[in-house]
User: What shape does this take?
Amino acid sequence: MNNKPVPERMCVACRQMKPKSQLIRIVRDKASGTVSIDTTGKQNGRGCYLCKNKECIKKFCKIKNFEKVLGFNIEGEILAQLEESVEQD
Assistant: This one.
C-alpha cells in the first residue's frame, strides 16, 4: 500500500491550500536573481504558488508590491506567460 501524503501548498492569491500538482510555481533563482515559471516544481530558489485559474492570476497581477509580499520582484513578461499558460489549460 502506498499511503504517502499529497504535498499541499497555498496559493498566494486566494490563500487556499491545494495539492502541489494543481498549482503553478514562480521561482527566483538565488544565484542569478532571475524570475521564471517553474514547470518541474523542483528548481532551486525562493518560490510562490498560484492556482491554475484566471481569477487567481488576475488577483495576483493586482498585487502592487511583489517585493514585499513575495521577497522578489516580478516582470510583466512573467505575468504574460502566466496568463498564456492558464488560457492553454
